[in-house]
Design a protein that fits this description.
- It is a single chain.
- The chain is of the alpha/beta class.
- It is built from 15 helices and 16 strands.
- The chain has a 7-stranded parallel sheet with strand order 10-9-11-8-7-12-13, sandwiched between helices.
- Strand 1 and strand 2 form a beta hairpin.
- Helix 6 packs parallel to helix 7.
- The radius of gyration is 23 Å and the shape is globular.
- The chain starts with a helix and ends in a 7-residue tail after the last strand.
Length: about 425
């Protein structure tokens, strides 16, 4: 039990700041060695990790956590394998630190360019998903940052088991263990302190429910990379391939319910709705999805419940789907403009011109043509893993991988030039 939260968090911040200097100058080989060693530790410690995760799951069920939250919390063998594989993929990626771009001669004879550098110390506050502990640690290490990780109380045992693997991997690679610190207390005061440690922490990344993120936005004195909601749309155009439309819409909703890139609203052009909606309704019914729709939708799906304005603005994270029949592309984009959380939107169409319009005019962090919204993910985008998905426009947007955890500084190369 940590009694003095203020002093504890200050010590964590000081250690992270010192570790960030060591990480800034760490060679790529040492960082990759640490990542591979952590992956090995996670695999060899599988039984211990699952045992600690079982404690969290039991406590979560006793507390009445939702099915979606319990799904995010659980560490199955496949998810443990995915964490280790994610670390190995990060190790195989090019190191962004030190990359020089846009180097040009100026009339004075100096050369001016940009060098990619770490952000410094990254504070990550997240709920439920213990895999975030590993993804965040891996990305921060490869990008030369130190990180302070504060998971939710529901995943305390899982996170501490993973933290032990991370510390061992760092030690094997000769890097400071303080480069990744997992907060050991569930006291909410630790979050409040972290959000005000701007002398130690350079960026805050929240991952969790809307309430958590709203609190962080309100209280943080540190820049925040965030997204509030994942209200994702799929629009089926009247020039869509019918089978593609059925498969994409079904996958976007049912592949996993409790994730931010799952479809929450389906928009269907009225010209194709009679062919699409009854067939989709049968598939959704078999999958246990509750349907809520506009008047035109309910005319085609008798069992569909009426949708309200609140439904269009809701991220369900559950087997519930809202459906609206629209006149065409313009009305679909108007609906997205009004209700989207700027996360991910998809169009299903064989019309090249309409697809290009959708890509150009829909202002979300990921916009797709003929693909499921479930692909809006750092792993699927080839980033190795992601630290989160940003719906901001500064400084990073979409899945935040290695490059999103760095910034650029100007560099100038001269040979004795002076300004006259």
């Amino acid at each position: 039990m940590i009694e003095d939260i203020q002093n504890y968090m200050t010590a964590v911040g000081e250690k992270a700041k010192r570790a960030s200097r060591a990480m800034d100058r760490a060679e790529t080989g040492h960082k990759d060695q640490a990542l591979l060693a952590i992956a090995d530790q996670i695999e060899s410690g599988r039984d211990r990790i699952k045992a600690e995760n079982a404690k969290d799951l039991a406590a979560g069920k006793a507390r009445g956590l939702s099915a979606a939250m319990l799904d995010r919390l659980e560490l199955t063998d496949s998810r443990i394998d995915a964490m280790a594989e994610g670390l190995r993929q990060i190790a195989a990626l090019a190191d962004p630190v030190g990359q020089v771009s846009d180097l040009n001669y100026r009339p004075s004879g100096i050369q001016v360019g940009k060098m990619r550098v770490p952000l410094g110390v990254i504070g990550i506050i997240y709920e439920s998903r213990p895999n975030v502990t590993v993804d965040a640690a891996g990305l921060c290490l490869k990008s030369g940052n130190a990180c302070i990780l504060r998971g939710g109380s529901e995943s305390l045992h899982s996170n501490q088991a993973l933290a032990a693997c991370i510390r061992e991997g760092l030690e094997q690679a000769g890097l400071p263990q303080a480069a990744v610190q997992v907060i050991e207390t569930t006291d909410r005061a630790a979050v409040g302190k972290l959000l005000k440690m701007d002398q130690y922490v350079d960026v805050i990344v929240p991952r969790g429910g809307k309430g958590l993120i709203e609190r962080i936005i309100a209280e943080s004195r540190i820049p925040v990379i965030k997204h509030l909601d994942g209200i994702c749309h799929v629009y089926i155009d009247d020039r869509a391939d019918l089978q593609k439309a059925l498969d994409i819409a079904f996958n976007a909703k049912t592949q996993r319910f409790g994730v931010c890139n799952a479809m929450e609203t389906l928009l269907v052009a009225e010209g194709i709705a009679p062919q699409v909606l009854p067939r989709l309704a049968d598939r959704f019914q078999e999958a246990g999805v509750e349907l809520r729709g506009c008047e035109k939708t309910r005319g085609l799906i008798p069992q569909c419940l009426p949708a309200t304005d609140e439904d269009w603005a809701t991220e369900y994270l559950a087997p519930i789907l809202s459906i609206r029949v629209v006149s065409g592309l313009d009305e679909a984009m108007d609906h997205i403009y009004r209700y989207s959380s700027s996360h991910t939107e998809a169009i299903v169409t064989e019309d090249y011109t309409r697809a290009r319009r959708f890509l150009r005019e829909v202002d979300s962090s990921s916009v797709m043509v003929n693909a499921s919204t479930r692909f809006a993910d750092g792993f699927e985008y080839g980033l190795g893993a992601e630290i989160g998905i940003s719906t901001d426009k500064l400084h990073a947007r979409g899945p935040v991988g290695l490059e999103g955890l760095t910034t650029q500084k100007f560099i100038v190369l001269g040979d004795g030039q002076i300004r006259t």
